[in-house]
TrEMBL record:
Cellular component per GO, a single term: cytosol
Protein name: Peptidase M1 leukotriene A4 hydrolase/aminopeptidase C-terminal domain-containing protein
Claim: Nuclease is one of the keywords in the record: no
Lineage: Eukaryota, Haptista, Haptophyta, Prymnesiophyceae, Isochrysidales
Cofactor(s) this protein cannot do without: Zn(2+)
Any one GO biological process: proteolysis
Length: 643
């Protein structure tokens, strides 16, 4: 491997932070926060316990232009902080002077900062009552991944900086506060000048990086659904959420068995978010945030919860050292998610093979969106000067799991053998961070101990080449049918075959009427994109809708796929349905492709822009920024403006 390639896969320099991540070790954080819905601000103090690693005149922390630090002390001594030059993507670093007498390596410093957030903080969304399910009270929640924690509190906003934390959160008397930590008793009433407030206390004893600090405040109810799981939601939704996520304990227990490592986070609670939440789920320790689009009424979309459960091991426990190695979080989590679901499914390995076919479709779409030669389609992308949000796609998920980890499964000798490696991997890197080079070295070392020949693995190609994996790289994996881990392009599609056949029947005979099969829309959508032109006449789509009731479905995944199929076919009848969907849901998995497809339709491009402008304030700041870029709005709206 070339010197440059070695440098990339082993790079430990975090290009997404401006903080002093090497000069100081971040040990513990104490937060005292007050949530003000009237001003849309959080005010309080962040007190860091840090260890001096290298003598430095100042401790530099990540912040943003809108995060105002009004006072600071170091070991009780007042100091004057200063903001350094702002960066277009990375915010405004804050220099906290370290008294000369305290700069000796090994010294412990207590750094306390009094601050307040901005109403435009990219880490927070403030929802008026009208945008909540109950319509009576406002709601606030955070989303810190990837580098938005710096807009919530001054920090070293880097995955490698893991710390424990405690917090007190003061909220209005009607509200409940939740965090990615263990609650410490019930709320305490706190008299205030204009009425009473409540204070909630939390403790996180496991080290976490800044992106896993989360807070949500609203009118919330709860119901216990398992020995370590309570679901939370607005009161009118609690029962539906409790039923939908009632199988969570099965996912946790199966993941424990697969990894050989007990769940490390004491509890696995789930907060069902408002519709504007931009992701399917967020793996905040002790408190997964989940989109309400998972509430299909039949538990058919619970795989997202399984994915977030898997993050308890791959991501939260074992963490990518920097965002350039993000596949170590998401590729591994997709692998563990799919292995858990395979164990629990009556279809067994047939389900796994089908999931790999779906992953291939998602990967092809992501590569097409960026372009096959884009460096952002490499498993280890270069992020020099790039906001990690702008690099986010299915690539680290699917190329990491579908391609590399499944290839290594074949090299190891099949699923059972690779699961043995996974247990060793989790045990070795628990509560640590690692690079792609660390992973490669550990795999090769394990292979040496197990007598496995891994000399043929072309690491440079797998990790650094953009675009789809080379078919030639899959050849060895598909030669031995006893290895149940075929190449990316060679998974037997037993479960998906009926869906593929149904698509062929509709295409060859659009005037027919055929019974629906599961995953049909996924196959039809993929076929439509590859064709680059409508496959079916409008009348066939209308008959399909009459037969399968697709426009009326409650399943958000099916609804999105069906609407995208119709947009590909320039079916005008679907446009009002698309406008209604994107106006009421903020999950980027749905709204981004729908807006892109609507915008690409020349006659409807103005509708896409007008709809976005009407509803942009209802989207999370991350989603709004990405949609601005998708719709090719003015350059400033497409750039990261961290405030």
């Amino acid at each position: 491997m070339s010197h440059d390639a070695e440098a990339r896969i082993g790079c430990t320099t975090d290009k997404s932070t401006l903080a002093s991540v090497t000069a100081f070790s971040f040990k513990h954080l104490s937060l005292s926060l007050s949530v003000d819905f009237a001003t849309k601000e959080i005010a309080g103090t962040a007190t860091w316990t840090v260890i001096v690693a290298e003598a430095a005149e100042a401790l530099v922390l990540d912040t943003t232009a809108g995060l105002a630090v009004t006072a600071a002390t170091v070991n009780g001594h007042t100091v004057e902080c200063r903001s350094l030059a702002p960066h277009e993507c990375l915010g405004t670093p804050l220099a906290v002077p370290v008294p000369e007498a305290e700069r000796e390596p090994g010294n412990e410093l207590t750094v306390s900062l009094t601050y307040s957030t901005s109403p435009q903080s990219s880490a927070l969304q403030w929802l008026p009552p009208a945008q909540t399910a109950g319509k009576q009270r406002p709601y606030m929640f955070s989303q810190c991944q990837a580098i938005h924690a710096r807009a919530l509190f001054p920090c070293a906003d880097a995955p490698t900086c893991k710390f424990t934390y405690d917090a007190e959160v003061t909220v209005p008397a009607w509200a409940t506060a939740l965090m990615s930590a263990e609650p410490q008793g019930g709320p305490q009433e706190v008299p205030a000048g204009d009425g009473s407030t409540r204070r909630f206390a939390f403790q996180q004893d496991r080290p976490v990086p800044s992106y896993l600090v989360a807070v949500a405040v609203g009118e919330l109810g709860s119901k216990r659904v398992g020995p370590r799981t309570t679901v939370w939601a607005e009161p009118c939704m609690v029962e539906a959420v409790a039923w939908e996520f009632g199988e969570t304990e099965r996912f946790i227990a199966t993941a424990e068995d697969l990894t050989g490592h007990a769940y490390d986070w004491s509890r696995y609670d789930i907060l069902c978010m408002p519709p504007s939440f931009p992701y399917g789920g967020m793996e905040n320790p002790c408190l997964t945030f989940a989109t309400p689009t998972l509430l299909a009424g039949d538990r058919s979309l619970a795989n997202v919860i399984c994915h977030e459960v898997a993050h308890g091991w791959t991501g939260n426990l074992v963490t990518n050292h920097t965002w350039e190695h993000f596949w170590l979080n998401e590729g591994w989590t997709r692998w563990l998610e799919n292995r858990v679901l395979t164990r629990l499914s009556p279809h067994g390995e047939e389900l796994y093979n089908f999931q790999m076919q779906e992953s291939l479709t998602h990967l092809e779409e992501a590569v097409s969106q960026f372009g096959a030669t884009s460096p952002l389609t490499a498993l280890v992308p270069p992020l020099d000067g790039i906001d990690p949000d702008d690099a986010f796609s299915a690539v680290p998920y699917e190329k990491g799991s579908l391609a590399l980890l499944n290839h290594l499964t074949s090299v190891a000798g099949g699923h059972a053998k690779f699961e043995t490696f996974a247990k060793a991997y989790i045990a070795a890197y628990a509560r640590r961070t690692l690079t792609s080079a660390d992973f490669r070295a550990f795999f090769c070392e394990w292979c040496g101990k197990e007598g496995v020949d891994c000399s043929g693995v072309e690491w440079e190609k797998w990790l650094l080449e953009p675009g789809m994996p080379d078919r030639a790289m899959q050849a060895e994996a598909s030669r031995d049918p006893t290895r149940s881990a075929e190449g990316v392009y060679d998974y037997p599609d037993t479960l998906g075959a009926k869906a593929t056949q149904l698509v062929e029947r509709w295409v060859s005979c659009p005037e027919g009427q055929f019974a629906a099969e599961e995953h049909f829309l996924e196959s039809l959508l993929a076929r439509s994109h590859k064709a680059g032109a409508p496959l079916l006449p409008l009348a066939a789509l209308q008959r399909m809708d009459e037969l399968y009731q697709l426009t009326a479905t409650r399943n958000a995944e099916l609804r999105c796929r069906w609407q995208r199929v119709c947009l590909c076919h320039r079916a005008a009848f679907i446009v009002p349905e698309v406008v209604d969907f994107v106006a009421t849901v903020g999950r980027m998995k749905f709204v981004r492709p729908l807006y892109r497809e609507l915008f690409a339709w020349e006659e409807q491009s103005a509708v896409a822009v007008r709809t976005f402008m009407q509803h942009r304030d209802g989207y999370h700041p991350i989603c709004s920024k990405m949609l601005s870029a998708d719709l090719k709005l003015d350059g400033k709206s497409a750039k990261k403006q961290r405030t």
